[in-house]
Amino acid sequence: MKHEKNTIPSENESISLSKRMTLKWLGAGSVLLSSRALSLPTMATPETKACDNLSRTHAIPYLEKHQAGVITPEQKEAIFLSLNLTVSTLDEVEDIFKRLTQCIARLTQNRQAEKTTNDRMPPAESGILGRYLAADDLTITVSLGHSLFDNRFGLTSLKPKKFVAMTAFPNDRLEASWCGGDLLLQLCANSRETVIYALRDVLRQLSGKVAPLWKIDGFLPARNIECKTTPINLFGFKDGTGNADAKDNDLMDSLVWITQKEPAWIENGSYQAVRLIRFALEFWDRTPLEDQENDFGRHKASGAPMGKQHEHDDPEFNRDPHGDRVLFDSHMRRAEPRTTERHVSKLRRRSYSYSLGLTSTGQLDMGLIFVSFQNDLKKGFIDTQKRLNGEPLERYIKPFGGGYYLVLPGISSTYDYLGESLIRAARALT
């Protein structure tokens, strides 16, 4: 990237001709209509653009000191892809970072599809979005896995001290094929086709340099995203009510962004915790409402704390010292006890639901892709999860994969690339 057809007919004949002409004009009209419909997605004309509402053409900037997709408002669709690198040198790692940055710069913008000039070569792109490609609020967030800091590329000494590998908690049943990876790509947009298009493009650009380890698709209720209300998960409860305000820059610096130089190359990055959690939905759907609400500590319909009326009402734990209203074992009270301050859980959630089909026992394989961002893994996800160990909700959930990742700092110039600060720091050591 640096310095890229006259005779008068009889009565019967007239009737017959009339029928023929009617059919002819109807046929011609349908051809015209169908051809116009077909032409819409293939040309960037005013008519084409009129078919795209504002949410389809809205682009989220990729040039910022922080990567997009961390505190960005949630989009409707997501794909999480874990990759292992198949290269062997630092120069090749740098090339991967540059290719990723180029993909992000191009894919997150409204644009015309690239034309293929040689039909003996593969098409320039998949074609699944037609000729006019809308940005669709696409974000692609790049994070590094703990395994990247082994001895392959000379990055070991540059691993932040707070960056640890994910280990199992008591209720976990982790599967190696669903855990870890050298890189994690989080692709989010407002339509399934956009994230799939972006995924295929990225993999094409990285062909021969990476090996996919695991992939999972996420989604959120369209009604919630369009109305800007708290998303509802597959248990039927609002998910993320207590999230810190992403518009509060000081609070985001306090909870999400790495502001200290530990080491300097990761400043403005963040730690990402990803947990793939399978829900026992058949069991849950046979559970009484009272039990469901007590397990969460919230009313299911409104999302309000037990005994309260509105979703964002203060639970007032200080007026419920014996846990008579909001049980001490409830998910809400364990995760966010509010004993000394509002944001005891020092993280910001950005989770998605998933559906993978059926398990080997014929149960629904559905659940949650839990995602949180924090500037300290221990104070953020790990301490929060420890408070949740043994909660009644564990009867209905089983974590099986994921990992901890390090979100790269953003970039502010088209001359820069993601990961550049890491590559420079590594070269300075040689």
What's the layout of helices and strands?
Layout: H1 11-39, H2 46-50, H3 54-57, E1 77-85, H4 90-107, E2 111-112, E3 132-133, E4 139-145, E5 183-189, H5 192-205, E6 210-219, H6 222-227, H7 249-255, E7 270-279, H8 281-284, H9 289-296, H10 331-335, E8 348-349, E9 352-358, E10 364-374, H11 378-388, E11 397-407, H12 420-428
Antiparallel strand pairs: 1-5, 1-6, 2-3, 4-5, 4-11, 7-10, 7-11, 8-10, 9-10
Keywords:
single chain; 430 residues; alpha+beta; nine-stranded antiparallel β-sheet; two-stranded antiparallel ribbon; 28% helix
Question: How would you describe what is shown here?
Answer:
By secondary structure, the chain is of the alpha+beta class. 28% of the residues lie in helices and 18% in strands. It is built from twelve helices and eleven strands. It has helices at residues 11-39, 46-50, 54-57, 90-107, 192-205, 222-227, 249-255, 281-284, 289-296, 331-335, 378-388, 420-428; strands at residues 77-85, 111-112, 132-133, 139-145, 183-189, 210-219, 270-279, 348-349, 352-358, 364-374, 397-407. The strands form two sheets. Strands 1, 4, 5, 6, 7, 8, 9, 10 and 11 form a nine-stranded antiparallel β-sheet that branches. Helix 4 (90-107) packs antiparallel against helix 5. The radius of gyration is 26 Å and the shape is globular.
